[in-house]
Amino acid sequence: MRVGDAPEVLAIYEAGIATGHATFEHVAPSWADFDRTRLERPRLVAVDEGGAVVGWAAVQPVSTRPVYAGVGEVGLYVAPGWRGRSIGRALLERLIEEARRAGLWTLQAGIFPENAASLALHRTCGFRIVGRRERIGRMVPRADDGFRTGSGVMAGHWRDVLLLERRLEEEKVVTDRAVEMRTEVRALLFDVFGTLVDWRASIARAVEAADLEVDADAFARAWRARYQPAMQRIRSGERGFVTLDRLHRENLVETLAAFGVEGLDEAAIDRLTFAWHRLDPWEDAVPGLTRLKSRYVVAPCSNGNVALMVDLARHAGLVWDAVLGAEPAGAYKPSPQAYLRSVAMLGLEPARCMMVAAHNDDLAAAAALGLKTAFFPRPEEHGIEAGRDLGPTGPWTFVARDLVDLAERLGC
C-alpha cells in the first residue's frame, strides 16, 4: 500500500461503511489519520489488471503497552464490484503471512454477527470465535448530528460484536506435528456430508428443480433434520439396519407431508431421493483430497451406503482408495463399530488412522476410540446464523482452515 493508493483505499472504506455491517465508523478517516493508526507492516492492496485498487487489508495495534506489541486487529475491505471473487481470501492469507514476518503473534478481528461473509472468510483462514460482546456499541443515528452517517438501515441500533483471533506463533508446532504424523498415520477416514460436499445448497437446487412450490432451503433443512432421529432408531436397536438411501426416502415422504406437498408419484419421489447421490463438493475438497491421497490411504467413513458413496465420488470427483463406513460396518456413526470396523477393514490399529470431519461430535466419537483427528470448519453448511461447528470444541490433533490447508499441514 502506497500513499498514491489513498483515494481508492478510502473510497473502498466508505463503501464498506455504507453497508452498515462493516464497522461502527460512520465516515472514513483522513489519510493522515488512517496512516497514523495502522502499522507500517503489513499493509496490502489488491489491484486489477489495470492497476486500480479493488481491495485492501491493514492491521491496527490493539494497545500501546509493550506486552501487546505483537497483537493487531485486522481491517479488510473489498470494492463492491469485486466481492465474492476470492479477493478477500487472497488479501487475508497474504496478510497473515506478512504479519508473521513482521513479528506479530496474534491477529484479532471484531465482526458483526450479521456479516456472514466476513465471518466465513475469517473462519476459513484459521480465525476462531473467542467471544461475543453484547450491545457493545450504537450505530450513529440518522438524525442530523453534524456527521455524515454511513450506518444505513442499522443507524441507531445497538450492535453485538463477535471477537475472533488467530495465533501465529503456533505454526512451527503444527509443522513438527506433521512430521510425526507422516510416520504414525497410515490412513485418513473422512466424513462426507457437510465436510466434503455441500448437501444443503445441492438439495435445495434439486427441490427447486422438482417444482414443489416450497421454500427450497427450508425444505432441505427439514429433510436433513430427520437424518439423526432416523438413524438413532437403528443405533438404539429399535429397528434393524437399513441403508441411508432407504432412510432418505422415508424421511422425504414425511417431509413432503409436513410441507403439504401432494401428488408426487413414486418415480418422482425416487428421483428426488437420489439427489443425495449428486451433491456438489466444496471448492477445496477435490484438490485437498487429491493431495492427501498422494501420501495417505483415503476412504470415506460416512453414514452413506456404498452405492451412494460410489455415485457421489463419480459426480463430485472424489478419489477414494476404498469405500468404508456405515453399510460395510453395519452401524451408523457415532456408534463405535462404524469407526472400528472401518479401521479393521484397512488392517490397521485406530492410532494409525485419522478421522477428518467438520463436525466436532464425529471427531469426539473417533478420538474416544484412539483415532487421530482433524477439524476444519464449514460455516456455510448450516449457515453462520445456526452457530453449529463454527470452530473446534476439542483438543483435535489438527485444526485447519479447509482441506487444502490440512494437506499443507500434513506435508502433502
Describe this structure in words.
39% of the residues lie in helices and 17% in strands. It is α/β, with parallel strands linked by helices and 412 residues long. It folds into three domains: 167 residues, Aminopeptidase, CATH 3.40.630.30; 157 residues, Rossmann fold (3-Layer(aba) Sandwich), CATH 3.40.50.1000; 79 residues, DNA polymerase, domain 1. The protein has a six-stranded mixed sheet. The chain has a six-stranded parallel sheet with strand order 9-8-7-10-11-12. Helix 6 crosses helix 7 and helix 11 runs parallel beside helix 16. About 2% of the residues have low confidence.
Strand order of the biggest β-sheet: 1-2-3-4-6-5
Domain unit count: 3
Principal-axis shape = globular
CATH topology group of the largest domain: Aminopeptidase
| Share of β-strand residues | 15-25%
- Total strands: the figure is 12
CA radius of gyration = 24 Å
CATH architecture of the largest domain: 3-Layer(aba) Sandwich
Instruction: Write the CATH homologous superfamily of the largest domain.
Output: Gcn5-related N-acetyltransferase (GNAT)
What share of residues is helical?
Answer: 25-40%
Classify the oligomer.
single chain
Q: What is the arithmetic mean of pLDDT?
A: 90
Q: SS-based structural class?
A: alpha/beta
